[in-house]
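Researcher: I'd like a structural prediction for the single chain below. Treat it as a standalone chain; there are no partners to consider.
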Amino acid sequence: ATKSELDMVADLAAILERLKDDMVALNAFASDYNQRIETQLESIHHQSVCYQQLIQSKEKELANQMEAHRSAFKSKLSRKQQQYIELSARCRSIKQSLDLNTENASNSTHDLSQSQSQQEQCDTIQQEIDQLSADSQQLL
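Model: Treating it as a single chain, here is the predicted structure.
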């Protein structure tokens, strides 16, 4: 082997040594890069699990609130319906009494005055019934 051949082999050996060093550095960089990506993926997965739990918690909270509102609405509607029934019964009773008083009123101005008072009561109750009916429609 000539000196130039020996020099070329030495140069090639030096190039191969630098390539080996570059490969080691490249492998270290790739390993570090992969580790950072893996860490970020774990972090994203953890955040995803946390958000999913938060969403489930909020959905449950909303469902409970909706059920509470629905229950309160049903209770209020039931009370309004009961008031409507009671006022309707009172109104019918007063109207019957008013009808009876109207028949007897022809003989007595006192009875007429009482009939007018009962008519006013009946009108007031009818207004309350109308208001309850409007309230019930709003609730629906």
